[in-house]
Design goal:
Layout: E1 3-8, H1 15-27, E2 30-36, H2 43-52, E3 57-61, H3 68-71, H4 75-94, E4 99-108, H5 115-135, E5 139-144, H6 147-157, H7 160-164, E6 169-171, H8 178-186, E7 189-193, H9 203-210, E8 217-219, H10 241-252, H11 256-271
Helix pairs in contact: 5-6, 10-11
Bound molecules: zinc ion.
Amino acid sequence: MTSFDSHAHFPTASAAEHHAQIARAREAGLCGILAVGGGPELDPGAIAMARECPADVHLALGLDRDVAMTAAPDAATLAASMTSLRGTLARLADEGIPVRAIGEIGLDFSHDPTASVKAAQIALFEAQLALAAELDLPCSIHSRDAETETLASLARHASPARRRTARVGVVHCFSGGAAFAAALVELGLCIGLSGILTFRNADPLRAVAADLPRDRILVETDCPYLTPVPMRGRPNEPAMLPHTVRRLASVLGLGEDAAAALTTENARRLFGLAT
Ligand SMILES: [Zn+2]
């Protein structure tokens, strides 16, 4: 089984810990990992992983919703934030570390749904959807308690060509219903399934997963969060991805190897990696 972790965070910047995680991931049969930043807390670990383990780790960078009030409180600050992000992407490309996706970006109205926070998050999200389209990169998207706004932003920025080729990106850690999934697929998105798929109370999500178009399904750990069953209580890491793949296989009526191969191929296609 060779699976691809399409969304992983590495908040600790310890190179020894990074290498240990990669060794365990290889042992568990992983063939690749997308290390995902999103702001000052997550970027250093993701960049360090991509730098230290270039054979296994690919990089996503962006400005996530939790930095919206500092990165996009007004148009001028947003413009400066985007210039800075472009500069970071260019510097990493010069260093031989191509950024494979803009992420994590998105909308989360679960904590502070005031109008100014919503407006800043939407402005930051849409500026990066536009940047991703310009650079022909996919996005790794977070959406929580913001389905209507997420779909509206995507509808404004997903060009017909990117919808047709399913190049827009992935809504990671999906936990929504069938209607939201169908609308995202229609807009050219893939659906990222995390350890939530293994949770005891996740029958509704498993029913949604069973009906997804198979070429749109990715798997992810979202580590160090969302540890899958039966590893609950421990910090998550890429080596735990096979528990989610196994559950997906049973949901889809596939063998484990087939589910791993399917989701790996989907991730490689989306992130523009050689198969
Ligand atoms: Zn994440």
